[in-house]
Design a protein that fits this description.
The chain is an alpha/beta fold. The chain has one domain: 3-Layer(aba) Sandwich (Rossmann fold). It has 14 helices and 8 strands. The protein has an 8-stranded mixed beta sheet with strand order 1-2-4-3-5-6-7-8, with helices on both faces. Helix 3 packs across helix 4.
C-alpha cells in the first residue's frame, strides 16, 4: 500500500500480483479499494499485476472539495496509470470499473486510444445525470443522507464498526461539503458516434434487476467489440454477486 499525488490530492493505492496490468476503479460514495480487495483482486492477482486505488474523497485518499466530474477523475486515473507504467511493457492496461468508476474507465479508454487492451464496464450508469443523480438530488441534510443509503450497503458495510464510522464521515463530506452532487448532475452522455470508435474488447456486466440495465443494452449494441453478460442481482454487483463477477472477470481478462 502507498500514496501517490495526483492533481493535488494523495491517492491511496494497493498493488497485487505480477503480469499484465489491470487497474480497477470503484464507484462513488460507497466504493473503495475494499470493493475489489475482498472480491476479485486475489483471483486476478494470480495472473495479473492488479492495481487498486481509492478515488479522491474515498477510502484513505484525500478528501477533495471538488473534482468529481468524469474528466477530473479520468485525469486522476491517468496519473495513476502513468505512475505505474513500465518502459519495457509493450501491452496496454486493462481497466475494470463499477458504476461511476466504470464511466471513469470508459472515459479514459476514449481519451487514450491504443493504451487500453480490454475494458470491463460493471453496471455503468451512462449517463450518470439520468441514472445516478435522481437518487442523490435531495440529499442535502444528514437525515436525507441516512435515508438514501441502499439496503445492500447498510447490511454489508454499515454495521457499527470503526470503518463504518469513517465511511459515514466521508459520505457526509461528499454529499454535504463537496461538489459531488453538482458534478454528477452536470454529467453529459457520450455520443454513439464516439463510442463506436472504441474498437477494443469490452465486457458489459450488468445485474438483471439493475435500474441501469438499459444503459448496458445500449453500450453492448453500440460498442463495436462488446458483449453483455447478466447476473442475477441488482446494481451493487461486487456486493451482491462477488463470486459470479470474479468468474466473469477472470474469463474475460
Amino acid at each position: 500500500m502507498g500514496f501517490i499525488q495526483c492533481n493535488g490530492n494523495n491517492l491511496n493505492y494497493q498493488k497485487l500480483g505480477v503480469g499484465p496490468q489491470v487497474v480497477m476503479c470503484h464507484g462513488l460514495v460507497f466504493g473503495s479499494i475494499a470493493t475489489w480487495y475482498f472480491t476479485a483482486a486475489a483471483t486476478l492477482a494470480s495472473r495479473f499485476e492488479v492495481i487498486l486505488y481509492d478515488q479522491r474523497g474515498h477510502g484513505k485518499s484525500d478528501l477533495a472539495a471538488s473534482g468529481y466530474d468524469l474528466d477530473t477523475l479520468t485525469s486522476d486515473l491517468d496519473c495513476l496509470v502513468t505512475h505505474f507504467h513500465k518502459a519495457d511493457r509493450v501491452e496496454g492496461v486493462s481497466l475494470v470499473g463499477h458504476s461511476y468508476g466504470a464511466l471513469v474507465a470508459l472515459n479514459y479508454a476514449l481519451q487514450h486510444p491504443g493504451q487500453v487492451t480490454k475494458l470491463v464496464l460493471i453496471d455503468a450508469p451512462l449517463p450518470a445525470s439520468r441514472y445516478v443523480y435522481p437518487s442523490m438530488s435531495q440529499v442535502n441534510t444528514r437525515e436525507a443522507l441516512e435515508q438514501c443509503i441502499p439496503d445492500e450497503i447498510k447490511q454489508k458495510t454499515m454495521r457499527g464498526s470503526r470503518s463504518a464510522s469513517r465511511m459515514q464521515e466521508r459520505m457526509e463530506f461528499l454529499f454535504l461539503k463537496s461538489t459531488l452532487r453538482q458534478d454528477v448532475r452536470d454529467a453529459v452522455d457520450i455520443e454513439d458516434e464516439r463510442l463506436q470508435k472504441l474498437d477494443i474488447p469490452v465486457l458489459c456486466l450488468y445485474g438483471r434487476n439493475s435500474d441501469c440495465l438499459d444503459a448496458g443494452v445500449r453500450l453492448a449494441a453500440v460498442l463495436p467489440n462488446a458483449k453483455l453478460e447478466l447476473l442475477d442481482c441488482g446494481h451493487y454487483i461486487p456486493l451482491e454477486a462477488p463470486q459470479e463477477m470474479t468468474s466473469q472477470l477472470d474469463q474475460f481478462l
